[in-house]
Design brief:
The chain has 154 residues and is an alpha+beta fold. β2 and β3 form a beta hairpin. The longest helix is centred in the middle third of the chain and has 13 residues. The chain contains four helices and eight strands; from the N terminus they run βαββαβααββββ.
Length: 154
């Protein structure tokens, strides 16, 4: 389900940031950019925030699943489509990780969580979710390990 990336961080963490008492929200903001997204299951339209659209390389904040996934690691496509199909047919929660291939030749790790609901109503339902973009990119040759594989710690 999750890929593990081994990266050299270009910017060290803020001194003292891992000390007791720091708020979880502050740590999350230090390590990542987070942004919500939503999907309308009756139309298949996915609504992204400004960061989500930009980091996915999309010209608009509205897109379909295939447009969203075009920059994802192709090895992850089948499983991500399966997760969205399940979410579209019955209320469910899901999460996945992948990498986004950027035009600059780097790869941006991505974590995604979502939940579908509203299948019993007049409309087809809705998905709400959260993207988490870690604050580092991987070089094109960086190693990423999938399930059951090990990579040296960061």
């Amino acid at each position: 389900m999750f890929n593990i990336a081994n990266a050299n961080l270009g910017t060290p963490f803020v001194p003292g940031s891992l000390e007791p008492g720091i708020q979880s929200r502050d740590l999350l903001a230090q390590f990542s950019v987070t942004e919500g997204w939503s999907g309308d299951l009756s139309s298949g339209s996915i609504s992204l925030g400004e960061w989500g659209a930009a980091l996915h390389g999309l010209p608009s904040r509205e897109c379909g699943l295939l447009s969203l996934m075009r920059c994802y690691d192709t090895r992850d496509h089948r499983r991500i489509i399966e997760l969205f199909e399940q979410a579209a047919t019955s209320p469910s929660s899901f999460c996945f990780s992948t990498t986004i291939a950027t035009k600059a030749g780097q790869r941006q790790p991505l974590f995604c969580m979502g939940e579908s609901s509203g299948h019993d109503r007049k409309y087809a339902g809705r998905i709400i979710g959260l993207f988490i973009f870690p604050r580092f990119k991987l070089d094109a040759g960086a190693k990423v390990a999938g399930p059951g594989k090990r990579v040296a710690p960061i």
